[in-house]
Amino acid sequence: KGLKFYSVIEVTKSIIHQTENMSSSRLDGKLPISRHFFKVMMPGFLTKLCIPPAFCRQLDGVKSEAAVLTSRKGSWHVKIGKCDKGYIYFKEGWDNFVQQHGLNLGDFAVFEHKGDMHFHVYVFDPTTCEKEFPLKLAHQIKRESSVVNIHEHVKHIKREGPFQAATSNSPVTTHFITTIKACNGKPNSPYMNIPAEFIKSNDLSQLSSISLRDPSGKLWTVELRSWKCSSRNYRPTCMENGWNEFYESNNLKEGDICMFELNRTSIRCKSTVVMDVRIYPQPI
């Protein structure tokens, strides 16, 4: 039951296909709120990044000449360019974002549109885990627009375990992405592996169970199992009992993509640890 993830390109193709086929309808003519698109860093990404055409159609009529990109490191203003077909891309300022986040070929990012061309960006490396960055202190963040409103107060505290991780300045991998494989839905003893880096970074090795929140908001309790591996310096961990119920209820199938995000509020409240799950169906 060793970790086995599809390549970044395979993951990207599925999510991009879904993004390209999103409906271009809008509610009341307003900009979409909290919508997502996914990009892999391919040759040419250093100086500009094109927004998927389907997402550009969601932004039809946008007059802004700049966007705000916010990550756990801070916020950056990036100028917007438009091609003849009306598609949008990030230009001046994007190269600075790339440099500050150490983006390389094969890295990828999820962009969450918060409205008014303000995006929250989650950056992942080819292992499918979120890249680790230290949280930026409020006095280090240059506020150039009232649109930017993040991390007003971040305190240095000692990280003592999973319940303290939510308020720690230590870099933490809070997301991971995986593609559904045959072993995740097999008739006998289905399971879902959790990356060792994710377990270690969040001090979750002592947990015996975790709750998954599906896109509808329903919680599913799943048991965790880990075992010793003499050839490795970590304990592989997977979700077992309870995973099959989550799998079947959400109609998962081989090739679908899931993004698991650790819910920091549940850790801070010392309740059952929760992971929010976003599901990207495999294109037909």
From TrEMBL:
InterPro entries per the UniProt record, alphabetical: B3_DNA-bd, DNA-bd_pseudobarrel_sf, REM_fam
Name by which UniProt lists this protein: Putative B3 domain-containing protein REM7 isoform X2
Pfam families recorded: B3
Chain coiled-coil ranges: none
Record's subcellular location: Nucleus
Keywords: DNA-binding, Nucleus, Transcription, Transcription regulation
Gene Ontology MF term list: DNA binding
CDD domains assigned: B3_DNA (cd10017)
Organism: Davidia involucrata (Dove tree)
Domain TF-B3: 34-127, 177-283
Gene3D superfamilies: DNA-binding pseudobarrel domain
CC per GO annotation: nucleus
Main localization (coarse): nucleus
Regions that span the bilayer: none
Superkingdom of this protein's organism: Eukaryota
